[in-house]
UniProtKB/TrEMBL annotation:
Name of this chain's protein: ABC transporter ATP-binding protein
Domain ABC transporter intervals: 19-244
Primary localization class, coarse: membrane
Entry-linked Pfam families: ABC_tran
Keyword Transport applies: yes
Key words of the record: Antibiotic resistance, ATP-binding, Nucleotide-binding, Transport
Length: 306
């Protein structure tokens, strides 16, 4: 069994972590874009990496993919240091990058068939086309597809090689709501087959739908990591009860016993309180709290140093 150490996201019995990161650093001149990250991702897990623009997510992911060299720390991806990953290792990972490659003149099926040829054990091209919902566009040139349809081709190219580990960098940007839901189904089926998935996204609902765990990177540091429904800690999840008093004044109380509070307000007001709401913080609310408190801490550190 794997035991996750709170606060670091490392796995204690590590026999089969898909990704293992220790003390990872990446400096661009004086900027520490990644500033000492420790994280493990278990095999078969879907892990969502969250964080504001410029936080260091893509830098971290590109180091794991072998596209970027690190400045310090240790990294192992499927048991291999990505800085030394050979073709056999590359065939075991799938990548859907943020910006799509140039489409060229090939049709959807031609492009997928070509990519399938690069892998030892590819998926069936037509099955993949169906999985990403592009059957009707299989004979269309990629260059003639809409932005969202091209994104589906990117996803298809990422999974054609039957990867053990799939990197998805903001995969559903530009998808319409129905396409996003279809994509989530596809990811769930890949997960059911045992694929490990590292998802970077700004859509918190996507993280909540797909992620087993999530980590929040801010300013190059992993400020929180845990099961999606534990992120931010118990305190951040305390519900808010809101209602209007008899005179119209708005009251708001945070309590982990909302039913008890509502009962006492009803008894006191002698009936249904106006505008009554019990609000449970969403993942987005919790994420925004984390971002704000990390920003405030960084500000305090700067003040202390000044
Ligand atoms: N090649 C580079 N040279 C210099 N600085 C870079 C380079 N690549 C990234 N950075 C800087 O490193 C920091 C982290 O960037 P990164 O792309 O990892 O962020 P991100 O979390 O993926 O952001 P986004 O959500 O906008 O994609 C940013 O401040 C960025 O400007």
């Amino acid at each position: 069994m794997e035991i996750t150490t709170p606060g670091t996201g490392t796995i204690e019995s590590d026999a089969d972590a898909a990704v293992r990161i220790r003390g990872l650093r990446k400096d661009y001149g004086r900027l520490a874009a990644v500033d000492g990250i420790d994280l493990d991702i278990a095999r078969g897990e879907t892990f969502a990496l969250l964080g504001p623009n410029g936080a260091g997510k893509s830098t971290t992911v590109e180091i794991l993919e072998g596209y970027r060299l690190r400045s310090g720390g240790d990294v192992s991806v499927l048991g291999v240091d990505p800085a030394r990953g050979d073709l056999a290792w590359k065939a075991r990972i799938g990548i859907v990058l943020q910006s799509a490659t140039e489409p060229g003149t090939a049709t959807v099926r031609e492009q997928l068939r070509q990519f399938a040829g690069y892998y030892p054990n590819p998926r069936d091209v037509d099955e993949v086309i169906a999985a990403v919902g592009l059957e009707e566009k299989a004979r269309t040139r990629v260059a003639k597809l809409s932005g969202g349809q091209r994104r589906r081709v990117d996803v298809a190219l990422g999974i054609i090689g039957r990867p053990e580990l799939l990197f998805l960098d903001e995969p559903t940007t530009g998808f319409d709501p129905e396409a996003r839901r279809e994509f989530w189904q596809l990811i769930r089926s890949l997960k059911a087959e045992g694929t490990t998935i590292l998802l970077t996204t700004h859509y918190l609902d996507e993280a909540a739908q797909l992620g087993d765990r999530a980590g929040v990177i801010i300013g190059g540091r992993l400020v929180d990591v845990g099961a999606i429904d534990e992120l931010g800690g118990a305190e951040a999840r305390v519900p808010i009860v809101r209602w209007r008093e008899a005179g119209g004044a708005l009251r708001e109380v945070r309590t982990d016993r909302p039913a008890e509070l509502v009962a006492s307000v009803v008894a006191r007001l002698g009936g249904e309180p106006e505008g009554l709401e019990v609000i449970r913080p969403s993942l987005e609310d919790i994420y925004l709290q984390l971002v704000h408190s990390a920003g405030a801490e960084a500000h305090d550190r700067e003040e202390a140093l000044a």
